[in-house]
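[job 4471] stage=fold_predict status=RUNNING
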Amino acid sequence: MISLRKITLENRRLIFNLEVAEDQNRFVASNLSSVASCYVLLTNGGTPFPLAIYADEQPVGFVMITYGITGYEIPSIAHDSYCILRLMIDRKYQGKGYGREAMIKILEFIRTYPAGPAAYCWIQYEADNIAAKKLYESFGFRDNGEVCDNEPVTVLKL
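[job 4471] inference complete, writing structure tokens
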């Protein structure tokens, strides 16, 4: 069973050591870099949610959710909206359905509105990351025609 958990002093190294497959490195930053970005975002008025993705008691991935600002170029719908800024499943655990199960949990978490109300959740993705695009579309995300940091923006109405 997939769950989202807080990153703690006890599990942080396990989360930092998770990696995507080598050919996916260009799609996502390292988890250590992402957690550092959360600190910078938090100290500059942002609302980040860095979470570990667990399959039962095994850490298998990482997600970084933000509310409002991201520290990067943002689309027109970003204010008062949630962004799934980073999402990864470790290379050893890919192809087992964990990404799909994690998205269910991520959207459940976002729909609790932990930082405030929102009409949208959005994601930027590399245009040639077809697997990610298909995953997002299967949950109802649709490209809105905007491009930020040279990446298409896909949006889900909450």
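[job 4471] summary: DSSP finds four helices and seven strands in the chain.
[job 4471] exit 0
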